[in-house]
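Fig. S4 source data, part A: sequence.
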Amino acid sequence: MAVLIGIDFGLKRTGIAVTDTLQLIASPLEMIPTENLMEWLRLYETSHKVGGIVIGFPISLSGEDTHITQNVRWFKEDLEKVFPNIPVYFQDERHSSQRAAETIHHVGKKKHGRNKGIIDKVSAAIILQDYLNERSSY
């Protein structure tokens, strides 16, 4: 079975997570400068069987678009053009960064709690795990 990639997209840096081949568990993988993201994904896809990409969809608590929502829509369109055989999904990402910071704190990484790169990739794993959990509840 193929892995799924989770993406916490940011204008400057992007967190990446990946599932196991059974698509049961999401794990943080990397933080990539967003300007290098497409090239990183192309390289990753050539050496791994990717069954789908899950992008955190940024909406406010009231359900409105945020300052980055349109950029994420454009990014999804770009992914669908570059990887036409890989499905791309949105997953609500509300509270993922907050949950990531709390998770990092609880596992004793207090000194890393302010490291945005760690928060980005843990957020990507939370987004991806939320997708897996919702998918399995159908």
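Fig. S4 source data, part B ends here. The mean pLDDT is 88.
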